[in-house]
Amino acid sequence: MKRPRRPRVSGRSAAWFLTGLAAGRWPGRRAHGEPDTVPASSQIVNHVSEAIISADQSNTIVMANPAAAALFGTSVERMVGSPLGHYIEGPTQAAGATTEPVDFFRPGSGRAGRRATDYAVTGVRGDGERFPIEGSISRANAGAPFYTVVMRDVSERRRVQEKLSRSNDQLRQLSAALQTIREEERTHIARELHDDLGQLLASLRMDLTLLQQADGTPGDSLRLMRGMEDNLLTAITSLRRIATNLRPRALDEGGLYFALQGLRDDFVERYAIPTTLLADEAELRLDDAASTAIFRIVQEALTNIARHAEATRVMMNLFRLNSDLLITIRDDGRGIRPEDMEKAESLGLIGMRERVWAMKGEITIGADEPQGTRVDIVLPLHDHLV
Ligand SMILES: Nc1ncnc2c1ncn2[C@@H]1O[C@H](COP(=O)(O)OP(=O)(O)O)[C@@H](O)[C@H]1O
Ligand SMILES: [Mg+2]
Fold it and tell me: How confident is the model at residue 20 (pLDDT cuts 50, 70, 90)?
């Protein structure tokens, strides 16, 4: 191993020092005569942040540094003289077989890191808590062989890794959900176009054919044409509705406040459920991203109320508190159940949550008092003011 000129205070060089010292290899003078600065070995060992333990061939700890004592939740005094197995889970071995420290870091323990001497083992803290450790072991002969282990607690890294893999899973699920949502939306639009517009246009065409063939009285033709006019009006309304669903024009023309009013008016007209919208136009002048997100959230909440709630009243409040927008949507219907929110196919709620989270906001959905459903949303707006 290459000698460091000036020992870096890292676990690796400290281990090297320990093993070196034990083996009687003292860093000597460099070739050009400049002396190495060699702090006393104990100083290095006591000050490195890595935990270091040395054990003799019978697995008795002969040296532990303060970092090791801290890692295992005990004191240096307690560690020295104790069996290594008190602190590191030992190998499972046939009765009577003897182990050496190096066995603690061999089969059964996973390899970790790139170096062949790095292993993942399980540590045991003073209070019995077990935790993952990565460490490297090196052997030296100072008369009898002895072993030096440098260790790191990798619990935090494990936790972060697990969290990362959980959030990866969620992302995968979400992307699948988004695909489904998009497909459902297309199906929905296709159905509306076909059912509403398609049928109206077909019947207009039939009326037109009849009109062309008409040899009856002018009264008949007039009646046909009135019918066609009605159908055309309905077609225009349908087209507007479908287009508005795709992209609410009010959002571009009047802004969020008027778009929400339009949503409320349509809802009242279609479902005859009294609905109040409490909001301030000036507080809702937001950029397009925020306006669209809020519009879609409110739209989904209203759709849900129409489809599931059996409500007789709806209240929507939007108001600013400092740089947050607080949105509350309440209905007095049958109330959402916890299991409704767990449904994997609850794409509407997933979509709502995603829009809120994408804006770094918070959303809670639950049963309201005394009855009904309540959606509360807090959206930070500092990036969205215009
Ligand atoms: N306002 C509400 N009142 C009662 N139940 C609701 C309400 N909103 C949602 N739910 C329940 O939550 C479920 C999930 O809603 P959502 O994710 O929008 O899916 P979907 O509307 O397509 O069924 C609904 O199926 C319904 O059972
Ligand atoms: Mg829904």
Answer: very low
Atom 24 in ligand 1: residue holding the nearest Cα: 340
Identify which has the larger pLDDT, 365 or 175: 365
User: 322-336 burial, b for 16+ CB within 10 Å, e for fewer?
Assistant: eebbebebbbbbebb
Beta bridge partners of 142: 144
Tokens of 351: 């979509």
Residue 12 beta carbon below 6 angstroms from any ligand 1 atom: no
How far does the centroid of ligand 2 lie from the alpha carbon of residue 302, in Å? 9
333 CA: nearest ligand 1 atom: 3
Q: What's the burial of 147, exposed, middle or buried (CB within 10 Å: 0-12/13-18/19+)?
A: buried
CA distances in angstroms from 101 to 115, 123, 141, 330, listed in the order given:
18, 14, 14, 65
- CATH fold, domain 251-386, is Heat Shock Protein 90 (3.30.565)
Is the CB–ligand 1 distance for residue 291 below 6 Å? no
Hey, what CATH topology would domain 11-153 get? Beta-Lactamase (3.30.450)
Radius of gyration of the chain (CA): 37
Predicted confidence band of residue 66 (pLDDT cuts 50, 70, 90): very high
Q: Domain residue spans in the chain?
A: 11-153, 156-246, 251-386
Neighbours of 125 (CB within 10 A): 14
For strand 362-367 and strand 324-331, is the pairing parallel, antiparallel, or unpaired? unpaired
> pLDDT by residue (tens digit) across 168-226?
887 888 788 778 878 888 898 898 889 889 999 999 999 999 888 877 677 888 888 99
Q: Which residues contact 49 (CB under 8 A, 6 or more apart)?
A: 11, 67
Start-to-end CA distance of the chain, whole Å, equals 63
Please tell me the distance from the alpha carbon of residue 313 to that of residue 334, in angstroms, as a whole number: 12
> Phi/psi class of residue 20: alpha, beta or left (left: φ > 0; alpha: ψ in -120 to 50)?
alpha
Closest Cα to atom 23 of ligand 1: 346
For residue range 328-361, what is the model confidence (pLDDT) as tens digits?
999 999 999 988 887 766 778 888 998 999 999 9
